[in-house]
Amino acid sequence: MTPARATGIAVLSQGRAAVFEEPIGPAGIRVRERPRSEPVPGAVAVAIRAASINHLDLWMAHGAQRITSPRVIAADGAGVVEASQDQAWRPGDEVVIYPVVCCWECEWCRRGENVRCARFGVIGEHSDGTACELFHVDARNLFRKPQALSWTEAAAFPLTFLTAWRMLTSRARLKGGEKVLVVGAGGGVAVAAIRIAQHLGAHVYATSRSEAKRKRALEIGAEAAFDSADFSKPLREASGGGVDVVIESVGPATLNESMRSVVQSGRVVICGSTSGVKAEIAMPRLFWGQLDMLGSTMGNASEFEAVLEAIDKGLRPIVDRVYPLDDVQAALTRLDSAEQFGKVVLSVS
Ligand SMILES: [Zn+2]
After folding, report:
1. Which residues surround ligand 1, an ion (CB under 5 A)?
2. pLDDT tens-digit map of 180-236
3. Which of 81, 233, 244, 282 to pair with 332, CA 20 to 30 A apart?
4. What's the domain range around 116?
5. Cα separation of 52 and 58, whole Å?
6. Looking at the structure, do residues 36 and 153 belong to the same domain, yes or no?
7. Distance, CA 174 to ligand 1 centroid (Å)?
8. pLDDT value at residue 6
9. Cα angle vertex 76, ends 116, 62, to 5°?
């Protein structure tokens, strides 16, 4: 094992790429030409067909992530292998990218616990990203593109479906027939959670501040949808006493209502905190309710494989809009407006 291998193969974005240059919002992300090279041993060069953006990219654009520029954005990508220095992949293979940065060699990575790797990170935040023409990445980050998905759909699911899958399965241990509340429907992970919870046989409820998004949540299978301001009472009435699991990504603005929405011994799973980083909670609700508060970020490669299997059985992402790579600023502005429902995708080639 060479030292270079032990620290992971460098991720490189090449050709035309959307680059974070200045923390001034979407205008600070510009399309630039980057030099091309051959992949190093163990790496594969993927000609990206589509990439998708996440709130992470927007926070970076606004300077909230303390990322050193320049940084090519985006965690999600799908494309065709152009050159391979690993026997697992050949030119022409259609692939999707596991959106995690890890070393693949430490004890945790070897045990399949990539999320516990000391080098764990997100592609496009802790390495170059997928919003580019040619993406060099460790061969172990690649998986076969699900045949049933278009390129746009294949780029739309990785980060959000991986995150929501881990929250509902490994963390919440959701069982078929249980009730799930997804707070803040509209965001990528929330929409993924609605889809996955349904796929796993759960009854799904949702909240959103937007009436249009509540309507969309109902259209994709939520049994009822509530305003995000004060939802626990109507939710408990609609669900017959509360839900078993809440999927939380909003944080301080909704956390207490989320805790009031679960049944005794319910689970509140948190993957984000878009309304602020510090929350004040009603402690008695936590201990009298025998609640489990569970944190979760991204997921392991095995969980990514489980998502791919679920897609083969009919699970589908939701694409909000598709923009050409050159219109990346418009795509980010779409996320900034918070009007999207599902994923904003960049079409690359
Ligand atoms: Zn590792």
Report:
1. 102-103, 106, 109, 117
2. 999 999 889 999 999 999 999 999 999 999 999 999 999 999 999 999 999 999 999
3. 81
4. 3-157+317-347
5. 12
6. yes
7. 28
8. 42
9. 90
